């Protein structure tokens, strides 16, 4: 019996597989397609996703050879500027999804993950000990847990009978990756026109992502779009097609927004687009899914190893469902702010003024990049539930930073006062939590005596606090040995 079977070999499924294997879990990925798709829906990687990759020692692989945009946006309004003091990655990385999948597949291979392409899940049944999985044209499988990372039309979600409520599409958008003979002097994605929106963005040298949006018209997403149709739509909206040619991919989509009402049903979980879909405003979809995977991975590994209770597994839904709901909400708002018309023009002018305020800029940047995600964690300390600052540290092994201490995928108990009581208090969790005495010069950690950091980089406990360390360790890492 396999520990965990993952349905879907896209970025979410691959990231989850890497997390599980890093924790010593036997994992099998089943991908319906016979090979990886060379085209790229997603084009951007936000700061929090880069931080997550940094926590596993992978960020440099993704950064190499790809452009960094120093700003992001909200509904195409004036650029939102990242706070360089808040993250080591104050930019959006322009990396095609196909490159992301390739790099994650390479990492999965290094860790020994088995990926079976051309294998489609067709049925499932679960009992108290595991999940029986039927696959098209193959022998049944059995796993202790199953995770559906199989996209917006998730077979796993349908087989579970999980509701997927939300709102239908109200627009038709098209994208194409093309070469331009006459590119605009200042490419922008997207520019508003009376007939909709159109824009281009150079994401690699000589390669552009072109996009159009027509409001209040909904095309059948299952009907293939031709390049000629795309060019005609672009010209109709923008007045030119910039000499576009040699399209390597053309697709259409809408702004339907739906979210699974449950991310967990017994031993089966949903992650990524199987759990939520929304308009791609702000480039948040892939990032949301990868962070789902990192939240779930260490918890599922703890369950496989026998030191996670039901509460820890339930916390995946408790923590990630509100984050997904907030993305649906902000993409709805961005679509509303992008529509043509005088009323929306006035609203955009007012919103653009508000964005000039530093606090508003910071709030919106944190929202779109997921840097401001905070989970409901016991304890009144300001750090609890938030992402741990990637502080520079001095340890017995030399200079390092917080993200490097998380490369193992284990929890970290950071001792900032060399308190001998911490060692005895944490002894029962050796092997699950690394105790690291350290010194720092980071103002964000001033007055902090110790910090317990989860494998996903969020703070589970910080001292001084009235919550005891053994209570926090038991909550997040199971009973002491």
Automatic annotation (TrEMBL):
Keywords: FAD, Flavoprotein, Monooxygenase, Oxidoreductase. Residues 2-331 form the FAD-binding domain. It comes from the Bacteria. It holds the Pfam family FAD_binding_3. Gene3D superfamilies: 3.30.70.2450, 3.40.30.120, FAD/NAD(P)-binding domain. Its cofactor is FAD. One of its GO terms (molecular function) is monooxygenase activity. InterPro entries: FAD-bd, FAD/NAD-bd_sf, RIFMO-like. The keyword Oxidoreductase applies. This is FAD-dependent monooxygenase. The lineage of its organism: Bacteria, Bacillati, Actinomycetota, Actinomycetes, Kitasatosporales.
């Amino acid at each position: 019996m396999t520990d965990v079977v993952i349905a879907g070999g896209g970025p979410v499924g691959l990231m989850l597989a890497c997390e599980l294997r890093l924790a010593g879990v036997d994992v099998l990925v089943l991908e319906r397609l016979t090979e990886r798709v060379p085209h790229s829906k997603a084009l951007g990687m936000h700061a929090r996703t880069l931080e997550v990759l940094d926590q596993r020692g992978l960020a440099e692989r993704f950064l190499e050879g790809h452009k960094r945009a120093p700003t992001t946006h909200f509904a195409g309004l004036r650029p939102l500027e990242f706070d360089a003091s808040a993250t080591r990655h104050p930019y959006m990385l322009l990396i095609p999804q196909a490159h992301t999948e390739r790099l994650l597949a390479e990492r999965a291979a290094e860790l020994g993950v088995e990926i079976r392409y051309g294998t489609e899940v067709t049925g499932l049944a679960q009992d108290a000990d595991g999940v029986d999985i039927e696959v098209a044209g193959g022998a049944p499988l059995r796993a202790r847990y199953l995770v559906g990372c199989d996209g917006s039309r998730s077979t796993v979600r349908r087989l579970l009978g999980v509701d997927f409520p939300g709102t239908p599409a109200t627009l038709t958008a098209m994208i194409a990756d093309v070469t331009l003979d006459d590119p605009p002097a200042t490419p922008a994605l997207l520019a508003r026109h009376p007939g909709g929106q159109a824009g281009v963005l150079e994401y690699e040298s000589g390669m552009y992502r072109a996009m159009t949006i027509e409001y209040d018209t909904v095309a059948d997403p299952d009907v293939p779009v031709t390049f000629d149709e795309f060019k005609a739509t672009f010209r109709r909206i923008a007045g030119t097609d910039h000499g576009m040619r040699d399209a390597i991919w053309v697709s259409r989509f809408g702004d339907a927004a739906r979210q699974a009402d449950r991310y967990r049903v017994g031993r089966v979980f949903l992650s990524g687009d199987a759990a939520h879909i929304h308009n791609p405003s702000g480039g948040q979809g892939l990032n949301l899914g990868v962070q789902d995977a990192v939240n779930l991975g260490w918890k599922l590994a703890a369950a496989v190893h026998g030191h996670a209770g039901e509460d820890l597994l339930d916390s995946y839904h408790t923590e990630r469902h509100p984050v997904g709901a907030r993305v649906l909400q902000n993409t709805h708002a961005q679509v509303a702010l992008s529509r043509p018309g005088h009323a929306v023009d006035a609203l955009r002018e007012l919103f653009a003024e508000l964005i000039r305020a530093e606090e508003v800029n910071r709030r919106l940047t944190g929202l779109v990049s997921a840097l401001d995600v905070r989970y409901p964690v016991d304890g009144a300390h300001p750090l609890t539930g938030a992402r741990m600052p990637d502080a520079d540290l001095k340890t017995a092994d030399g200079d390092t930073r917080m993200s490097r201490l998380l490369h193992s995928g284990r929890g970290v108990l950071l001792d900032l006062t060399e308190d001998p009581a911490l060692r005895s208090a944490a002894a029962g969790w050796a092997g699950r939590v690394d105790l690291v005495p350290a010194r720092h010069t980071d103002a964000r950690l001033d007055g902090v005596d110790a910090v317990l950091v989860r494998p996903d980089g969020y703070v589970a406990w910080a001292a001084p606090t009235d919550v005891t360390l053994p209570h926090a360790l038991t909550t997040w890492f199971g009973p002491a040995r």
